[in-house]
Design goal:
EF-hand domain-containing protein, two-stranded antiparallel ribbon, single chain, Recoverin, domain 1, mainly alpha
């Protein structure tokens, strides 16, 4: 039983929750948008794989190299 609880705790703490992602990204956001490079820099500290996030950012970035903060937060939180 203790092993099962430990494994569950380890699994649930490997992935950041929505609030953690939002807090990390909000620090560098402006006007509801955030630079792609800032997203990539922020997710490294959260332990999120950059491959899926990189694909998302390439698909959703605007001409100024920025993405919607809410959309990026939701996507990263879903990983």
């Amino acid at each position: 039983m203790a092993l099962a609880i430990f494994q569950w705790h380890r699994f649930t703490t490997l992935f950041p929750c929505h609030d953690e992602v939002e807090a990390a990204l909000k620090k560098k956001a402006s006007g509801g948008k955030i630079k792609v490079e800032d997203v990539l820099a922020s997710i490294g500290s959260l332990g999120v794989s950059t491959d899926a996030v990189d694909r998302y950012l390439k698909e959703h970035k605007d001409s100024e190299g920025m993405v919607d903060l809410a959309g990026a937060t939701k996507f990263i939180s879903s990983l």
